[in-house]
Amino acid sequence: MVAGIIMAAGFSKRMGSEKLLLPVEGMPMVERVIRAAIGGGLEEIIFIYRRQELKALAEKYGLKTVYNGAASEGQSASLKLGIAAASLEAEGYLFFVGDQIFLTPSVIHQLLAAFHQNPQGIIVPVYKEKRGNPVLFPKGLREELMQVEGDQGGRGLLEKYKERVVWLPIEEENADIDVDTPEQYQSIEGMGKN
C-alpha cells in the first residue's frame, strides 16, 4: 500500500489569506485535493494541517490528521510528520500539495500503477514537459526523507537518485495547476471540469 500525505500547513504568504479554504466551483480548494486522493484509491491518507478549519474539513472525510507546529520550518516539517504518521506497511509515500485544484483520481491511479511496476522508483508526474505533483517516494528512502530540511521537500533526492526517477507523462488538461497568488486564483474560475 501507498500512504497519501496531504501537506496543508503552509502560510499562503503570496495569497495574503488562507488560500486552501478559498472556493473553487463552490468547494474549498483543499477539499478538491482530498476528494481526488480518496478517489485515487489510497488506503491511507494523512492530512498535515496548521489551522483548525482545515483539520475539520479533513475529519469530515475520516482522514488521519496531524498538527504541524513547526510549519515555519518549511515543507520539510510536513513531509516528516506525514512519514512518521504513516503505517509501517506503507511501501511508498505520495506527497500532495493542498492547492492542486484540478488534480483527478485518474492521475493518482496512473502514479500508483507506475509505482507497482517500479517499486524502488521515485514516480514524478510530468505535465506538458514540466515536473509536477504529487510525487511518490519508495519506503527505501524513508530515512533520507526524514533528514530533509527547509522548504525543498524531496527535491534533493530527485537529484541524488536520478537513475531511479520515473518521469510519468500526464495528459490531463489543467491537472498541474496550483494557486499561489490572487491573480492566479482569479484566472482559474471556469477552468475546471467536474
UniProtKB/TrEMBL annotation:
Protein biosynthesis found in the keyword field: no
Molecular function in Gene Ontology: nucleotidyltransferase activity
Domain MobA-like NTP transferase: 4-163
InterPro entries cross-referenced by the UniProt entry: MobA-like_NTP_Trfase (IPR025877), Nucleotide-diphossugar_trans (IPR029044)
Keywords: Nucleotidyltransferase, Transferase
Superkingdom, natural source: Bacteria
Protein name (record): Molybdenum cofactor cytidylyltransferase
